[in-house]
Design brief:
Blueprint (H helix, E strand, L loop, with lengths): L1 H28 L4 H12 L25 H11 L5 H12 L14 H36 L4 H15 L2 H12 L23 H39 L2 H8 L4 H17 L15 H6 L5 H10 L3 H29 L7
Helix pairs in contact: 1-13, 2-3, 5-8, 6-8, 7-8, 8-10, 12-13
């Protein structure tokens, strides 16, 4: 078992290099580099006229030419952004810097990338942690309740409600919540957006907790509705399969109380498929949804990633890819570990 996890960790090294190298090349070859965008700003800001910047070549090449901009300015911008070097050289420099968590400076925010991520991080982390806790604390008991009462009215009604909620796109679902429960003529129970009130700093500790909870409810529902339905259905179906096994019928035939049959014998084995996705718990550190954060005016990781891609803020994009790849790989490894904890019979070779 130990040897298996060591091999998995060692295999992460070439996987990491492959992911980051491929993404780095694709990003730097995409059109619309920061140099081109800066030249556009200089041209329009300076009131220059004429055609747009012609010959938009690869994003990282920095070879954009414009007759209205002096070549010395273009060369200076290429040097400032590091585009005066070949792609493989820039990748090697980036690779050396990340070992000290130096992701460079954001082209958009004009400050270190790590500072930008740290500033956006708490918003998404708050929603990520609370969403995954509520999802597991509610979905697993609900899935067990539906399995025990399979075919009953409770099972049918709850299934219809969950499937309807899952089928509605997050954007539409969020708009419905806002229209009916926030800032409208219906039920004005929750704030329209943001993650805290304007007078947050003047509130007591308990008041701040309640204020954040008040702002969390609507976007939190949108965050977890998809995984909530999937996990509930997975738990229900998995437990139903286990209940049909011979050892469960044997336990019942011996007169074991039904609650012991379900919660001691059946539930543990039914959680093995659920453990497949539990590695996603690491994803809470980078949880972010562009649609939800835009809809509810939350300045988090999801919105930052989208804006960085649009503005060709390469350093921020590569930092997010770096962190996401590590989270994904260690999440998969953690899922394998949970497999062994749930079912000691599993032995990875």
């Amino acid at each position: 078992m130990f040897a298996y996890f060591v091999r998995r960790i060692l295999f992460m090294i070439p996987t990491f290099f492959g992911i980051t190298l491929m993404c780095f090349i694709i990003i730097n070859l995409a059109p619309g580099s920061p140099v081109e965008q800066k030249l556009q700003a200089l041209r329009f800001g300076g009131g220059m006229s004429g055609a747009g910047i012609g010959g938009a070549s690869g994003g990282g090449t920095g070879t954009t030419r414009d007759s209205s901009v002096n070549q010395e300015i273009i060369d200076a911008l290429n040097k400032q952004y590091g585009f005066d070097k070949p792609v493989h050289v820039r990748y090697w420099i980036w690779l050396k810097n990340i070992f000290s968590f130096n992701f460079g400076e954001s082209f958009t925010y004009q400050e270190p990338v790590i500072d930008v991520i740290v500033r956006k991080f708490p918003v998404s982390l708050q929603f990520g942690i609370l969403s995954i806790l509520l999802t597991y604390l509610v979905s697993i008991p609900l899935g067990v309740a539906r399995a025990v009462r399979a075919g009953s009215r409770f099972d049918q009604i709850s299934g219809v409600v969950l499937n309807m909620a899952y089928a509605v796109p997050p954007l539409v679902f969020g708009l419905v919540l806002i229209v009916f429960f926030a800032g409208s003529g219906h039920l004005n129970l929750f704030p329209i957006g943001g993650f805290r009130s304007d007078n947050y700093d003047s509130l007591s500790l308990w008041g701040q907790i309640l204020d954040r909870a008040h702002h969390f409810i609507l976007p939190g529902i949108c965050y977890m509705i998809g995984s909530f339905t999937q996990l509930t259905l997975l738990t229900r179906n998995s437990l139903l399969d286990v209940i049909k096994q011979d050892y469960i019928r044997t336990a019942r035939a011996k007169g074991v109380a039904e609650k012991w049959v379900i919660y001691k014998h059946a539930l543990r084995n039914s959680l093995i498929p659920v453990a497949t996705g539990i590695g996603g718990i690491f994803g809470v550190f980078l949880a972010g949804s562009l649609i939800i954060e835009t809809l509810f005016n939350l300045d988090g990781i999801g919105l930052l990633s989208y804006q960085s891609i649009i503005s060709r803020d390469y350093n921020v994009v590569m930092a997010m890819i770096f962190l996401s790849s590590l989270v994904l790989m260690f999440g998969r490894l953690f899922s394998d570990f949970i497999y062994v904890v749930v079912d000691p019979r599993i032995d990875f070779k």
